[in-house]
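Quick one, tokens below. Sequence please?
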């Protein structure tokens, strides 16, 4: 059924870049399908007969409470899984005297209940990772919803990003630094691993980039360079030799990893940071502890190994992470079932 008026809405109260790229991709897919849709940041004035595609568990919980249609929930990530994984990670690494550890305990108890409520109430639930789907199936086996796996897309630059030459090895991290939770998801690595590693590797630097004022807390650390927010991704990726993915959440897909693949920069990562990818062997170097990190950095100096890894990763996203393909599929499923 083709819609001629705004009876289809995409609702999100979060305006971060990671959310925006998903919402914009969905809107464009709706337009390609001939569907009239509108992005909104509030439910005020929207008829309860309208189909509202809400981003995130909080917003879908709100739809349920206010009596809107419970057809499709854009959960995208299994939020409670991320908090659960962080609790286990901080305990394992004896990194518990920080805000995020205690907040994650509270948030896991809160959001696991809401995750369960949403998947039981909605007919279809959209997630970007099979890992997240499997978790929600275990969390709420009584749910009868249809789980839709819709991967995020990668924004591939039109021109290959050339890296500036350097006499030393440059590691880089791109993350959100806007609050104590997102800060700690990356800062743990600087404090627990890099500060130890750099003592015996003085010719290695770590460049930190991303939005948020908390990033400046790491200024002054040995061999740490704070770039902050960058106007364009190439401004960051052209200045590093290896991209580090150190987020311990283990849910969803890290857009910053997709960006590193797209800019053809080798990736060294925690397994949790790669949990959203399937069949991605030989696309990155993994580590689980400090000695594993040291080994991965040593291996990254093998130009043949890294060249093959970069090619594998780039080809992977070209096959699996095309916005138009993935979101045209999603809109087709929504249109056929609920419009």
């Amino acid at each position: 059924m083709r819609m001629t008026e705004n009876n289809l809405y995409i609702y999100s109260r979060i305006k971060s870049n990671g959310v925006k790229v998903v919402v914009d991709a969905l809107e464009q897919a709706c337009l390609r399908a001939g569907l009239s849709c509108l992005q909104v940041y509030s439910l005020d004035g929207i008829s309860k007969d309208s189909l509202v595609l809400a981003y995130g568990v909080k917003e879908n919980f709100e739809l349920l409470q206010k009596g809107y249609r419970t057809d499709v929930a854009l959960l995208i990530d299994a939020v409670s899984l991320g908090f659960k994984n962080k609790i286990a990670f901080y305990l394992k690494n004896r990194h518990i005297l920080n805000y995020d550890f205690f907040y994650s305990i509270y948030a896991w108890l809160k959001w696991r209940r809401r995750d369960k409520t949403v998947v039981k109430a909605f007919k279809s639930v959209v997630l970007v990772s099979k890992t997240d789907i499997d978790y929600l199936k275990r969390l709420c086996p009584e749910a009868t919803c249809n789980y839709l796996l819709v991967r995020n897309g990668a924004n591939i630059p039109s021109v290959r990003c050339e890296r500036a030459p350097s006499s030393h090895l440059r590691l880089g991290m791109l993350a959100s630094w806007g609050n104590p939770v997102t800060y700690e998801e990356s800062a743990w690595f600087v404090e627990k691993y890099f500060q130890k590693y750099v003592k015996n590797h003085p010719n290695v630097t770590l460049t930190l980039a991303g939005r948020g004022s908390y990033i400046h807390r790491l200024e002054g650390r040995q061999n740490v360079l704070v770039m902050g927010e960058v106007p364009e991704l190439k401004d960051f990726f052209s200045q590093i030799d290896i991209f580090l993915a150190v987020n311990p959440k283990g849910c969803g897909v890290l857009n910053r990893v997709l960006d590193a693949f797209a800019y053809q920069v080798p990736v060294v990562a925690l397994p949790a940071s790669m949990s959203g990818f399937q069949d991605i062997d030989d696309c990155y170097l993994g580590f689980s502890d400090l000695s594993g990190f040291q080994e991965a950095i040593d291996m990254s100096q093998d130009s043949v190994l890294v060249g093959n890894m970069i090619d594998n990763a780039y080809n992977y996203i070209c096959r699996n992470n095309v916005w138009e393909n993935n979101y045209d599929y999603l809109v087709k499923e929504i249109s056929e079932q609920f419009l």
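The domain at 8-85+112-153+322-338 is CATH 3.40.50.2000 (Rossmann fold). The first strand starts at residue 8 and ends at 11.
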